[in-house]
Design goal:
mainly beta, 2 domains
């Protein structure tokens, strides 16, 4: 992780209103039927790790994801995987190419070659390098996505369309169904509910960000790890982590077509 200099929160001009992405057209939805499989993982480098690790989380696509611990590891055991790694601000920070069946110092993760000028928490402001403090405290991990069906010796990095969200008053606010209207979801529901109902949001403008770390609810901390169209099917997925004592769970959600509800598609617990 590139984090020389002081740790501080980046300062920037007031952000625009929450982004509302256009709805997918029929061509995108039809093409999704033949879409490849994707891997979503977390690319991490922190003081507990000897080098950058890729932790696989979810395998699937087209609205069907699973987090079976053994199945999601199979593609990384069989062949190198080429991940695009997204930083705390929603920009692609680098590429992680895993080495086939190369398990790291943490046996849950895989190692390889990471190429990038900044780590997932890093930023440069006024010529000074720093790191987003909340990102570092949360483990210095960024979402990473790979196309597991690209068998070329040098797999091509994939494009990732990301979306912004807002966290305010113990609610997550976003347009995840891409209907042009914002909805609010109670953060507490992400602890254990498999279906989370959203309600229309008409409050004041909420500063948008790609990630939100360390929102405390009782003894737990909730991290919004990012939202985006990670499998190129025209729909958005949302990835949330819950830190509860020594336990950490990561879940992926998506809205059913035409619904403000978020369905939990898969969850993994560390």
């Amino acid at each position: 992780m590139a984090a020389a200099g002081c740790w501080s929160r980046p300062v920037s001009p007031p952000p625009p209103p929450l982004a509302v992405l256009p709805a997918p057209d029929a061509a995108v939805s039809d093409a999704a039927a033949a879409a490849p499989r994707y891997l979503i993982g977390e690319n991490c480098l922190n003081k507990q790790l000897t080098q950058t690790h890729l932790f696989p989380r979810f395998l699937g696509g087209r609205g069907s994801w699973h987090g079976d611990a053994e199945e999601v590891r199979v593609p990384l055991r069989e062949a190198p995987q080429h991940f695009n790694v997204v930083g705390f601000d929603g920009t692609v920070r680098g590429e992680m190419i895993t080495t086939a069946n190369a398990v790291g110092s943490d046996p849950r993760g895989f190692i390889g070659t990471y190429t990038g000028s900044l780590g997932v928490c890093g930023f440069i402001q006024d010529g000074v390098r720093g790191a987003m403090y909340d990102c570092v405290i949360a483990g210095a991990c960024g979402l990473a996505v790979a196309d597991v069906d690209d068998t070329h010796p040098r797999p091509r990095p994939i494009d990732i369309t990301v979306a912004t969200t807002c966290v305010a008053n113990d609610m997550l606010i976003a347009d995840l169904d891409r209907d042009g209207k914002l909805a609010a979801f109670p953060l507490a529901a992400f602890r254990d509910e498999t279906e989370i109902e959203g309600v229309p949001y008409s409050g004041p403008d909420c500063p948008p960000r790609y990630t939100w770390y360390g929102t405390q609810l009782g003894p737990d901390f909730i991290d919004v790890l990012g939202a985006g169209d990670f499998d190129h099917d025209g729909s958005l997925e949302l990835v949330i982590a819950i830190r509860s004592g020594a336990s950490r769970s990561v879940a992926i959600y998506a809205p059913p077509k035409g619904s403000k509800r978020l369905d939990r598609l898969a969850v993994v617990t560390q």
